[in-house]
Design a protein that fits this description.
156 residues; alpha+beta; 4-stranded antiparallel β-sheet; 29% strand
Length: 156
Amino acid sequence: MLTTPRRALGVFALLGSLVLAGCGDETPGEADDEPRGPIDFELVEMVTETAVGGMISPGAVPLADVSAVQQFSGQFEKDRMQTRLVQLVDELVVPDDQAAYAAVVAIGCDAPTEVTVTSTDTGILIEAVKPTTKPVQCLAPMTSVAVVLVDESVVG
């Protein structure tokens, strides 16, 4: 007698999952062409300054112009980081098919030399590759900002 209600429940669960599987945001023929996962990039520079604050966030920010750099730099407690980033972006020659992005990738006693760049549904992520050497002792933390170039086709 218990098998009938369980069987009915199983049928309803199956039907519900089939109905939900058919739901989605994309319409037919509207494929997402942007790659997801690790992407090719060029590390332009790792800008590191001591005792400037900031917050580690892998979510990359597009640096289309000096105004964008100034807005990104608002998180730092000292002007040194903003000055270096503005100068870097001002002198940077970005090819037509690429875009410049930046993210705070580390705050601490070690300045990373490498990063990984990943494309996600929410944007570009830039993350530091952790150094394999023993950490050094420091008196003030260093903030490291990675500036990279990525293909515009990846960012839409």
